[in-house]
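ok, trying the design again with the full structure, not the truncated one.
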């Protein structure tokens, strides 16, 4: 055995690189390394190299794959929600336009009905022609029922459709 070699050096090196030095080593080997300069140096140098390797591995470690997957899922969901919101906004604008149109038609019809009714009340009051007043009023009331149903359909069906479109995502 020369001064540059020791039969236990490889054993000490192996234990150190496995992270089992000195706790996982035999007491005799630890005792030997305390006295043997070669084994002591081997343990110190290999330990330092192992520490440096673990540090650089931790610094360069790729991100946790589960986290990457969750982030990708979250991003996909956000993008899908944004994509779903675009037609939603269009549907909402359409619903608003329909509601305003129905409301406008309804108000105009109401104004026409009110104007006609007032005329007819005046006519009926002067001539007591009740039939001439009731028939157009009933007709207009029927039209108002149709308008109310149409307005309800616009105000209920479109939000319901929008809700279903949202829930589907
Ligand atoms: Zn030795």
């Amino acid at each position: 055995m020369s001064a540059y070699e020791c039969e236990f050096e490889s054993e000490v090196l192996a234990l150190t690189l496995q992270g089992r030095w000195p706790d996982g080593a035999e007491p005799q080997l630890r005792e030997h390394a305390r006295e043997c300069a070669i084994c002591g140096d081997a343990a110190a140098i290999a330990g330092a190299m192992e520490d440096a390797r673990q540090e650089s591995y931790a610094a360069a470690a790729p991100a946790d794959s589960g986290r990457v997957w969750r982030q990708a899922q979250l991003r996909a969901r956000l993008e899908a929600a944004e994509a779903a919101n675009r037609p939603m906004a269009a549907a909402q604008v359409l619903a608003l336009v329909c509601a305003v149109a129905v409301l406008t038609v309804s108000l105009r019809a109401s104004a026409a009905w009110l104007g006609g009714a007032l005329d007819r009340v005046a006519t009926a009051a002067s001539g007591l022609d009740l039939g001439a007043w009731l028939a157009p009023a009933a007709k207009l009331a029927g039209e108002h029922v149709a308008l109310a149903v149409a307005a309800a359909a616009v105000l209920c069906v479109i939000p319901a459709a929008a809700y279903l479109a949202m829930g589907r995502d």
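Keeping the full-length input from now on. The mean pLDDT is 81.
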